[in-house]
User: What shape does this take?
Amino acid sequence: MDDINFYLDKGREFHGDVCPGIVIGTRIALAGMKKLGMDPKVKNRDLMVYVEIDRCMADAIQAVTGITMGHRTLKYKDYGKFAATFLDLSTGKAVRISAADSQREPPKTDNGSKLNMERMVEDLIQVPEEELLIIEEVEVDIGEHDIPGFPKYKSYCEECGEKILDRREVIFDGRTLCKACADGPYYKKIRVN
Assistant: This one.
């Protein structure tokens, strides 16, 4: 394994500290890139990653790999799992890596209390990869409107008038709507200017 401390420092700089989630995310990122034959020290323009949780692990993967939502190379799937899928856009090869069940819960001391954070971090750094991670080759069916680059399609919501990119519109009763107008927004408008 590359010097993990270099990558943990990247995670610390991005996230603010090194916690167990940063260690697991760093280890997942390094394993995923290794399986795809990619060097984490080099900008990998063909790398796309799907993260399955919106926690520290996702920050570590972003810090180590350099993928971002703005470049459309970071995709979020709200599964609530410590897992990520790494896809090489040039070859189509993909690997999904998840934390083994035994590593999801912090280890306990003899008296049943949780170990302190520093001990958990050190334990996660030292545990062998085959005990920490589950690595599976997978296939990813990525649609043309999910590929990085300029939007290939745009439409407008017939209810609110806002632009919708990348085929994210919904056809409801023959009308083109954004998802907020079709399903209800996550926000509530207080005042319209």
User: Anything to note?
Assistant: The chain has a mean pLDDT of 90. Helices lie at 4-15, 20-35, 56-65, 101-104, 117-126, 129-132, 179-183.
